[in-house]
């Protein structure tokens, strides 16, 4: 493509509302333009990167026997009522009515639609397994769209759905897609980790997220360097050691703690370690109060707690709940708190002579002992894992890093097939619910994640598989210089190499700056001085390495560089 003919509006300055690196560079490099909050237009350069990723996805999924189709983005709300998700999905579901007052939604995902399709077509076990996928725009009414295309209200996604006759078949389909995802993200040149994950509003059993490791990530990945354990912080567990408390149970005692309502303040006020405190947080679940307890040196993991309580979204209790229970926010504790469900972390149950709120303003209990002083409804792991805790697989110390979720795979089981009565006839002629899996990749998000991992202060450093153009020819001059550039341009095009020819009548500084900003893996500078010696200058964007190449060896050298995995 000739830059003189290309729609490529690069920017010298970063727009004020751009926050993370990928957002800044995608705007400056002329890849995207904002239409509204969380809504972006993809310009030619940005769409080429997306198309490259889509081609990789299709190749790897097709190898696994998946078949591409296209489902409607506009979905009848009645389907979501059948599955039970119309209300449970929450305010992120984009809803609308047609002129006849019939309710619809814009698809954030397509479990209901694909199940409805297959239940009317698949009749026998002989038609299974089946794996169908699409690449399509999705819609979610994000409460706070941000970070450009990393969290938008409209985004491009690949979603696939597998249908099997039994759990064994689902496990095989899941592994096939897991392997395909590893191939996809490896081909993209990304540093990533598959991690254990929560299933959220999608539902089902096992799930893995694929995380691109980057500082801009909204998720925290807990991992072990000595084995393959990795999990989203929402689901991570650790082999936490009980802190020895070989004490005789002492008499329960009330102490005055004026204006001391946090664990940090209690540590100072009472001169006791945080692991001697019981942290209590009051929630409201389906209009019922629930008290969650963890040791004072931990935080409550609300995803784990939500899974225990079988709810997707937890709400902190309102002031009237505290009043009804005759307790005080900041001083709430489990002792003598009547008629309430209490969920305690397993480490809490090992505590002795602990400190907890006394349910009175400016008062705490000393010498609280679980079992003696309060009873719990449920004991479970509801704490948030900390750096340095022991790995549950090998005992080594756990670490944390930030990650951008670019894909997730789920074992749905029969959640949707039972709800929508999608059955097949087994070998005995008996109807059975289809066993499903679903598999998503955030296409537009992956492009942004790639930029988060591959950039410097000057611009993007594209991995070659995603690069809109693998080679940029930067022309400094006219006449013989332009003639040589045109010859190179035609040679590369004939070899099927994506090439960008900067033939603009711009100053050299502008061309060099734009080249670094756009980030083609290989930049070739064609100028009168080097050409007089029969050479051109080559720079590799990823490494910064620069060298000269003989004109006669140009094509062979470029082809050699593009086959090198580094570029």
Automatic annotation (TrEMBL):
Native source organism of the sequence: Halobacteroides halobius (strain ATCC 35273 / DSM 5150 / MD-1)
Protein name: Proline--tRNA ligase
Record carries keyword Ligase: yes
Localization per record: Cytoplasm
Location of the Aminoacyl-transfer RNA synthetases class-II family profile domain: 33-463
Gene Ontology molecular function: aminoacyl-tRNA deacylase activity; ATP binding; catalytic activity, acting on a protein; proline-tRNA ligase activity; transferase activity
Primary location: cytoplasm
Keywords linked to the UniProt accession: Aminoacyl-tRNA synthetase, ATP-binding, Cytoplasm, Ligase, Nucleotide-binding, Protein biosynthesis
Any one Pfam family match given in the protein's UniProt record, by short name: HGTP_anticodon
Gene name of the record: proS
Enzyme kind, highest EC tier: ligase
Gene Ontology biological process terms, A to Z: prolyl-tRNA aminoacylation
């Amino acid at each position: 493509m000739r830059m003189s003919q290309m729609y490529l509006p690069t920017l010298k300055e970063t727009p004020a509302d751009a926050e993370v690196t990928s957002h800044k560079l995608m705007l400056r490099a002329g890849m995207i333009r904002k239409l509204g909050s969380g809504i972006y237009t993809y310009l030619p350069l940005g769409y080429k990167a997306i198309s490259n990723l889509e081609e990789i996805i299709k190749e790897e999924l097709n190898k696994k026997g998946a078949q591409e189709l296209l489902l409607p983005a506009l979905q009848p709300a009645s389907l979501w009522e059948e599955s039970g998700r119309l209300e449970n999905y929450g305010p992120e579901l984009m809803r609308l009515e047609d002129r006849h007052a019939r309710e619809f939604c814009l698809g954030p995902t397509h479990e209901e639609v694909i199940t409805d399709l297959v239940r009317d077509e698949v009749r026998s076990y002989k038609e299974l397994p089946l794996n169908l996928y699409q690449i399509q725009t999705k819609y979610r009414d994000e409460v706070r769209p941000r970070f450009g295309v990393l969290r938008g209200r409209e985004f491009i996604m690949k979603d696939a759905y597998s249908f099997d006759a039994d759990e064994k078949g689902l496990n095989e389909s899941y592994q096939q897609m897991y392997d395909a995802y590893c191939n996809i993200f490896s081909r993209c040149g990304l540093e990533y980790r598959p991690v254990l994950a929560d299933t959220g509003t999608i539902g089902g059993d096992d799930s893995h997220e694929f995380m691109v490791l980057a500082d801009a990530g909204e998720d925290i990945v807990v991992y072990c360097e000595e084995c393959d354990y990795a999990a989203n912080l929402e689901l991570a567990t650790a082999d936490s050691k009980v802190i020895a408390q070989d004490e005789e149970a002492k008499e329960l005692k009330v102490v005055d703690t004026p204006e001391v309502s946090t664990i940090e303040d209690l540590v100072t006020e009472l001169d006791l370690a945080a692991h001697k405190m019981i942290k209590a947080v009051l929630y409201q679940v389906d209009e019922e109060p629930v008290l969650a307890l963890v040791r004072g040196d931990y935080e409550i993991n609300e995803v784990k707690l939500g899974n225990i309580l079988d709810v997707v979204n937890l709400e902190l209790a309102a002031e009237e709940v505290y009043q009804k229970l005759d307790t005080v926010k900041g001083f709430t504790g489990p002792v003598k708190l009547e008629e309430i469900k209490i969920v305690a972390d397993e480490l809490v149950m090992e505590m002795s002579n602990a400190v907890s709120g006394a349910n009175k303003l400016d008062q705490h209990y000393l010498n609280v002992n679980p079992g003696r002083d309060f009873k719990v409804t449920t004991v479970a792991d509801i704490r948030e894992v900390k750096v340095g805790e022991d790995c549950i697989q090998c005992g080594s110390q756990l670490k944390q890093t930030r990650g951008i979720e670019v894909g997730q795979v789920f074992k749905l089981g029969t959640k949707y097939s039972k709800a929508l009565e999608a059955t097949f006839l087994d070998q005995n002629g008996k109807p059975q619910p289809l066993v499903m899996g679903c598999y998503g990749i955030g296409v537009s998000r992956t492009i942004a994640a790639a930029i988060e991992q591959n950039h410097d202060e000057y611009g993007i450093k594209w991995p070659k598989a995603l690069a809109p153009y693998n080679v940029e020819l930067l022309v400094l001059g006219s006449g013989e210089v332009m003639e040589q550039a045109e010859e190179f341009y035609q040679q590369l095009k004939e070899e099927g190499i994506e090439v960008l020819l900067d033939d603009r009548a711009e100053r050299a500084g502008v061309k060099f700056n734009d080249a670094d900003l756009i980030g083609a893996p290989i930049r070739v500078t064609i100028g009168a001085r080097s050409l007089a010696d029969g050479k051109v200058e080559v720079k590799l964007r990823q490494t910064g390495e620069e060298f000269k190449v003989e004109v006669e060896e140009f094509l062979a050298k470029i082809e050699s560089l593009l086959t090198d995995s580094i570029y």
